[in-house]
Amino acid sequence: MMRTSLRQFHVAAVVVAATTALVSAQTKIPPPPNNYTPAQDVELGRKAAADARQQLPIMHDDAVSSYIDDIGKRLVAAIPEDLRHPEFRYTFEPVNVREINAFALPGGPMFVNRGMIEAAHTEGEVAGVMAHELSHVALRHGTAQASKATKYEVGQVAGAVLGAIIGGGWGQVISQGTQFGLGAAFLRFSREYEKQADIEGVQIMARAGYDPRDMANMFRTIEKQGGSGGPQWLSDHPNPGNRVEYITQEAQALRVTNPIGDSRAFSQIQAHLRQLPKAPTTEEATKTAGRRTGGSTGSAGRVPGGRIEPPASSYRTYEEGNLFRVSVPENWRELEGGTSSVTFAPEGAYGQANGQNVFTHGVEFGVGRNETHDLQTATQELLSSLAQGNPNLSRPSGFDRINLGDRRGLRTTLSNQSEATGGAETIQVMTTQLRDGNLFYAIAVAPRGDFSSYRGVFDRIASSLQFTDR
Ligand SMILES: [Zn+2]
Which residues keep their CB under 5 angstroms from ion ligand 1? Predict the structure, then answer.
């Protein structure tokens, strides 16, 4: 059983476009280039929403549902003409968790945490976060982000796409439960998209009758929240810098039409929520959800074992935005390795031991920091860190020079004695360098007795590898 995920994944820094509009007119936000059709947005969002509904405790409380639905509908009516897509269906569902968060999926499904409504000081603050989320959807940021990765393969829909859309925190929560489909969530919205959603959002707010400065107020409220119930939303929606300042500036250029003066509905809903049992944390809630949906979805604490399904002869393509794409057997699941790696393994071949993700058959891809910019040295460092988590791992007897994704690479084969299963296993490590100099690795694992029958699969996976880093 192989333990990996030792190194920090290197995520390419996003270049923030310095667009400081000093004009006192409404800023026009053009939707970014997108290779997907609006219908594909709808389809992706529909699937992800179904997963989200399984994993998250949706509140079935008429008062809360209709409250956020009213705000949502008012905001949707204020989306500018050129950003309307007739296919999109905007829906608003409250989630019974404590954290201040909300997320929206392509094509329209939005989920709003109860904790967000509880933390807000005004209805405008709730509307501010919702308007920001709505703007991501209307500007089609999820698939625009995915388009950057699938520039040469239009229409390719992979798990990573959904991970990108959901963003860090949520992607992890959801993929922990489902273990597939929602992707490893390395991607989140770029700061450029964040600024677009802020600006578009304040314009929508003003047209819907809200004071657009309430968006900035809510961001301040979110920032003030510390601890475990803290600014999860901010990790999915990073501050592009000067957020409050440019929101305030944009707000000054806007006139609020039909202002909503009455906030009685807001005080009523807060009073109603105070009467309900305290909302659980997302972690507590998703654990319960995991139990409810049976043991087949979650694998926490379970050491792999039992019959392993043979690799399917048909393959599916996995895309990691601006990094790589690879084909893996269709019946291998995608397992999240924090932010540093992604593993593909068949059912029954993965689980957890001592709090670490482990797998007995499968392949893991990841990126390690390379300070030396020398492939051989970086590979040796990777093997040393693998040896720390796997004390019975053999030392490399040598390296083969190979071609990995059209780049110069190294390959070595090691043996290991699994601590958990006691069995002997064979491990093949392949490495190459990314354009930024960092180390890219692929680790293929199978029990020694099975390795020869898996070799063809590993070779096919390796030869499908293509790099998309720039
Ligand atoms: Zn955002």
Answer: 194, 197, 237
